[in-house]
Amino acid sequence: MATRIDMPQLGLTMEAGTVLKWLKAEGEAVEKGQPIVLIQTDKVEYEVESPESGTLLKIVAAEGAELPVGKPMGVLGKPGEDAAALLGSAGATQPAPSSQPQAAQPAPAAPAPAPVRAAGERVKISPVAKKLAQEHGIDFAALAGSGPEGRIVREDVERAIAARQGGPRAARGETATPETIPLTGIRKVIFDRMGQSWREVARVTMFAEADVTALVRLRQAKGAEWERRFGLKPSFSDLIHMAVARTLRAEPRINCRLEGQSVRICREVNLAFAVDLGEGLVAAVIRDADARSLPELARTARELAERARSGRLSPDDMAGATFTVSNLGGLGVEGFTPIVNPPEAGILGVGKIQEKPVVKDGGIHICSMLTLSLVFDHRLIDGAPAAKFLAAVKACLEQPTWAE
Question: What's residue 93's pLDDT?
Fold first, then answer.
């Protein structure tokens, strides 16, 4: 009996998904549990496994098509079995139309020189990039990665494929045209979400500079003890996350979301933080962050970041955030204005910690200073509670007795 392969609901908030790539062709045999189609939803790429053994009788949703949850993507059954009755009026779904005019595709740039790796060294590569390399016979161990910490991402493999297909000129990078990045997958989600936020949110930014000298000294003094007790050494990001979570609990007015025509002040503190995947950013969510101890919070953040970089982050891992922290200090950024991620009402930008001469107590002192930028939706939050929250975060970081 034929079986429909429907767009799955991978999380409570998932409403639709995009078909990225069919891993099997029509008429091809499939084993139960074998990956059959790659889909994209809210920045997560997920391999849908075959529910039964059989033959892929019909592909209903073309690559690039966006479908609501529960709509058919294809039909699985026995060779010669009629799939039309099972589908009813559902016909082939065309790819979602692009919001940008189609342009001639320029020749891609040449891949970077192959890195030198020690024998047995683990190759850092995203799951999608690894699958693409295997399909095209590309030795990904010989590729240089452009992602974080040299991670090989899909674009690196695509460049290697194009260079091989383009012959010697492409391999030497002899092209006057720049590389293009298609607005598909995670890039399309970011394109749509950030555009929506920029159009709809009444953004206001407040800045504050925190003297985190005591926090820096505390981490230096306690680092070895923390590592011995907890099995890890909390980072400055972990300490900042904890300070923000505690402040959100004490100043709940900014811990709110837009729901229809109402502003819901959330009891739960679900703190989102940005993870760079090389191919784009995702925001992983630490649930009940205010109720966690420092080692619990640090361990959860590491686990979420690792799942994100290995392609195992689920939609529920990115759902339900009440506030976001975006930290670019590790990249040398001193200060910036991040974009609010609706329906959240605010986001805190964190710059790098740097030593500066500061005038205080009648003298000049060298202090560790940190720039904070609070961006909030003025439709949902007034200036006074936003300023109060930012001042409270600053005070929490300057007097870190809670971390001792």
Answer: 57
Contact 90, 72 (CB under 8 A): yes
**Whole-angstrom distance, CA of residue 331 vs CA of residue 234:** 18
Please tell me the least confidently modeled range out of 182-196, 205-219, 264-278.
182-196
Tokens of 76: 């699985």
Q: Which residues are catalytic?
A: 378, 382
3-class SS at 266? coil
**How many Å from the N-terminal Cα to the C-terminal Cα in the chain?**
64
Q: How far is CA 143 from CA 149, 228, 283, in A?
A: 14, 37, 28
CA distance 244 to 350: 11
Ordered by where they begin, the domains of the chain are: 3-87 (2.40.50.100), 107-178 (4.10.320.10), 203-403 (3.30.559.10)
Query: Which residue bears the tokens 């099972």?
Result: 86
Q: What is the pTM of this model?
A: 0.69
Residue with token string 């592909």: 59
Token digits for 324? 């976001």
User: pLDDT tens digits for 361-375?
Assistant: 899 999 999 999 999
Q: Specify which residues 152 forms β-bridges with.
A: 125
The β-bridge relationship of strands 3-6 and 72-77 is antiparallel
pLDDT band at 112 (very low <50, low <70, confident <90, very high): low
Q: In what order do the strands lie in the sheet with 3-6?
A: 3-6, 72-77, 54-59, 29-30
